[in-house]
Write a structure and sequence with these properties.
five-stranded antiparallel sheet; 39% helix
């Protein structure tokens, strides 16, 4: 098997093939065509001067070397075989070197264009111009995006979003996750069986055996359903939790067949009912102060969310600085109660169905707040509005029927507007929050510990990452240029077998490297690849107001340098400091105007539409896929252009263009090998017969000569 020599200076150079087809040809090896054996040796001796001319001629011919004579006759055959092997060798070298470039492109792509690559560059988050550092990374893990603002952010309080869940204490004592599943219900769950559940309307089946443990079944149901099934040995509790959080989270678990004794037995013993009731999920509330001093309480269905360019991953609750809670004396009041149903004085007589709009006017820590409502607004609507207006968290807890206020970076105090007291406001706070005067003071939390996030510039880090990519890209395109610009060394031809027998392995390798020079010179596919890579930087990106020169990128004016880039780091730094988001979009923007380029080959119109809308790095990814994908990139089974040309070593059958050429050339070599075997057999037979015949004639001539000599002597 052939391989490619490697380079220590540029890992993306197209190396030289180590293939040596001629040196491994069995026919030439058996022929032993070394320089010493290629010359004929004569075994005939000189004739005695006393012999006649005819006797001398016959005697010398009868002693000729058959092997030598056959070798002489086979010279043309061996010359042709060397030529055919040379042609095959050249094709093999060409294929190997193109495969080397396929490997280079895929190594480059795997490093930079795969999400699990060591230097993934296709996500805007791969180049973050800011770093975010949490004072408590266990509670909050932040990520500053390129739209963030530098400064300090504070999470004053956090009540995490929860998922819908079912929990039940098992009636069976002493269970562990290693206990046999049948222990839960020896009657219905013994042996093997199938749990057939319907989870949120989707059928879920799990097959258990007599050796299955409770832990096995919980893990299996989790995998099959996408929910989280578990058993706690500490509390002897079975739990099931929805895979999503927030008020929209739901969890409904039933038996697919109400008469299924196995599934019903499991549900009854694990969750206490064949139709267990889930606790509803709830949205999370998070009180956040941004660098500009603005404080707001946001409601999110997930504990991972992004606001103003800063991603928050909340891992635990953060108790607020102060809290206040009240359960209204009127038990009919809840967050769904409409404001018009409250007994408020909106400029007229108090009544139970006041349909006029109104305004709540009060002070929070001395700052005036005015909030207008409609009579059809619910108290929940008003709670949400007041949270946004005040920066505190106004909420309703259905389980305790309580209205709550929390948050702030310190204790809070709510009081009636001193300049314009409002009967509506006082009545609202009296009925909802139990304060007849309209004044509320929070209860300070002695363990209050807000989490601070510092967002700082990371421009130098982004510049370094882009520079690293440019360096690798330059190595790739330099490797291509090196092969395209190689000059053929006409002083070096493919070696014959006889020539190789006179050289050592290192000399053969050095000679073959010289012979391979220029094989890819002017290669059309490689030239097109390099041109497309170069154009990826020059063509404008739709929707981006920047060009490659705006971020300090330019290409060499030297045509022999191909698409080599230079990066002005000062220009890039300045652009990142002014608008990092635009810079990163120029590089990583995803096209939204046409189908994905994975549908290649697209129509020229669609391809251009995709291309125009993509960032530079996205384009390069598509180009690498277009030329070097070793797997089908469309339903027709199309692979990369270079792969179609040269194939890859892992192909069970080489059906590439060069592979087909090699098959034809290998067939020609095989045919010539067969011809040599046949010719050698024929010549050997013929010359052996000739030698036998001449030997017989020589013997007869000797006998006659002897008889004549005797007769002459006697006379």
């Amino acid at each position: 098997m052939s391989s490619i020599s490697s380079s220590t200076t540029n890992p993306y150079l197209i190396g030289y093939s180590t293939s040596d087809i001629i040196g491994t040809n069995s026919v030439l090896q058996q022929a032993g065509l070394s320089s010493s054996s290629s010359s004929s040796s004569s075994s005939s001796s000189s004739s005695s001067s006393s012999q006649s001319y005819s006797q001398s001629l016959i005697s010398s011919m009868s002693g000729f070397n058959v092997t030598s004579m056959v070798s002489e006759m086979m010279t043309t055959d061996y010359t042709k075989l060397n030529q055919l092997l040379g042609t095959e060798q050249t094709s093999q070298w060409t294929e190997d070197r193109e495969r080397s470039e396929i490997t280079n492109l895929n190594n480059f792509g795997n490093t930079y264009f795969q999400p699990d690559g060591s230097n993934y560059v296709l996500s805007p988050n791969s180049f973050l111009a800011y770093t975010a550092t949490s004072s408590d990374p266990t509670s909050v893990t932040p990520t500053a995006l390129n739209t963030a603002a530098a400064g300090n952010y504070t999470i004053n309080s956090a009540t995490m979003a929860t998922a819908a869940s079912i929990s039940n204490s098992s009636s069976v004592a002493g269970l562990t996750n290693s206990s046999a599943f049948s222990t839960l219900d020896p009657t219905d769950l013994s042996g093997s069986g199938t749990l057939s559940l319907t989870v949120n309307g989707t059928p879920v089946s799990y097959n258990y055996t007599s050796s299955s443990t409770i832990g096995d079944v919980m893990s299996g149901l989790s995998s099959e359903s996408g929910m989280n099934f578990s058993y706690s040995e500490l509390t002897n509790t079975f739990s099931a939790t929805s895979g999503t959080t927030g008020s929209g989270s739901k969890l409904v678990i039933t038996s697919t067949d109400t008469s299924d004794a196995i599934t019903n037995g499991f549900l009854n013993n694990a969750f206490g009912s064949e139709t267990p009731t889930a606790s509803a999920g709830a949205d999370g509330t998070f009180n956040i102060t941004e660098p500009n001093g603005g404080t707001n309480t946001v409601t999110e269905s997930s504990n991972n969310f992004t606001i103003d360019g800063l991603n928050y991953d909340i891992n635990s609750n953060i108790a607020p600085a102060a809290t206040y809670s009240n359960v209204p004396t009127d038990t009919t009041i809840s967050d769904s109660t409409e404001m018009g149903s409250l007994d408020l004085d909106n400029g007229g007589a108090w009544n139970e169905t006041d349909t006029q709009p109104g305004t709540l006017s009060f002070d929070v820590n001395g700052k005036n707040v005015n909030y207008s409502y409609n009579s059809t607004d619910t108290i929940g609507d008003v709670m949400s509005g007041l949270s946004k207006e005040t920066g505190l968290n106004f909420s309703y807890n259905a389980s305790s029927s309580s209205f709550n206020i929390s948050g702030g970076s310190s204790n809070f105090k709510i009081s009636p507007n001193s300049s314009a007291p409002s009967a509506v406001t006082s009545s609202f706070f009296s009925q909802v929050f139990g304060s007849a005067s309209g004044s509320i003071s929070g209860t300070a939390n002695s363990s209050y510990s807000p989490v601070t996030i510092n967002v700082a510039s990371n421009v130098s880090g982004v510049v370094s990452e882009i520079q690293n990519f440019v360096n690798s890209y330059n190595n790739v395109t330099s490797g291509i240029s090196s092969a395209l610009n190689e000059k053929t060394n006409y002083n070096y031809k493919t070696l014959t077998y006889t020539q190789e027998t006179q050289m050592n392995a290192s000399q053969i390798s050095a000679w073959n490297d010289q012979t391979q020079q220029g094989l890819l010179s002017g290669n059309e596919n490689l030239s097109n690849l390099q041109n497309e890579m170069r154009q990826a930087f020059y063509e404008p990106v739709s929707g981006s107001g920047l060009t490659m020169s705006d971020i300090g990128l330019s290409t060499s004016d030297d045509p022999t340098q191909g698409a080599v880039l230079t990066l002005n780091t000062a220009t890039l730094t300045s652009a990142l400091e002014k608008n990092p988001n635009d810079v990163i979009n120029l590089l990583t923007q995803v096209s939204s105007t046409a189908p994905s380029n994975t549908a290649y080959p697209l129509s020229s119109t669609n391809y251009q539409s995709v291309y125009n809308g993509e960032g530079i790095f996205q384009r390069l990814n598509d180009i690498v896929t277009k030329y070097a994908s070793t797997t089908p990139i469309n339903s027709n089974g199309t692979r990369g252009i270079l792969v179609n040309e040269a194939g890859v070593t892992s192909d069970p059958v080489d059906n590439s263009s060069l592979g087909q050429t090699l098959k034809q050339e290998q067939t020609a070599v095989t045919d010539q090998d067969t011809q040599i075997t046949n010719d050698k057999s024929m010549y050997t037979t013929q010359y052996t017969a000739l030698q036998t015949a001449l030997s017989s004639i020589s013997n007869q001539e000797s006998t006659v000569s002897s008889m004549l000599g005797s007769s002459s002597s006697s006379s």
